[in-house]
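Researcher: Structure prediction, please.
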Amino acid sequence: ALSLSVSGSAVHAQAGGWTTLFDGTSLKGWNVVGDANWEVVDKAVQATKGTGFLVTPVSYGDFQITAEFWVSDDANSGIFIRCQDPKAIAAGKSYGVNIFDKRPDQSYRTGGIVDIAKPASVVMTGGKWNTFDITARGTKLTVLLNGMKMVDVDDKKYTRGPIALQYGAGTVKWRNVRVRTL
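Model: Predicted structure follows.
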C-alpha cells in the first residue's frame, strides 16, 4: 500500500520525481554539439575522439543530477550546468564540474567547479565507474563524488540553463544519468 504524507516535502518529492536523461539505448533527447564520436556501447554512451558535448534541450534552475562515469586516466570531461549558451559550452559561461585527474593546474581537478570551487579531496577516477551527485539550489552548489562532498559553495553567476556532458580527451563513458527539479 502507498502511504502519503501531507507534509510539503513529501508532496514535493512526489511532484519532483527523477527523469532519466540517458536510458542506455540511444542519444534521443540530447542535442549534440561538436564532433565527439558519441556512441552507445553496453548501455553507456561513450566517446574516444573529437571534442564536444551532449546538451539537454531543457533548461534547469534548481535541480539535482546524478550520473555514473568511467574515464581513462588521461580523460578530460565533466558535467556543465546552468549553461548560458547551449551552442557554445564553456567554463566561463556555465558551471563546469570537472573530471580531469591529470589537469595541469590541479586546483580545479576532478570534483571541482572550474574557476569557482576547488575540490575538498583528491580522488583518482580513472579506470573505474564513479558517481557524481550535483545539486544546484538558488546560489548554493554542492558536488558529491562517490558519496564524498567535494564542493559546497555559494555563487550567483548563473541561475538556469541546460546541462551538458563533456568529451574532451581520453575515453569517457556515461550511464544512469538522471535529473530532478527541486
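Model: Residues 8-15 form the longest helix (8 residues).
Researcher: Thanks, that helps.
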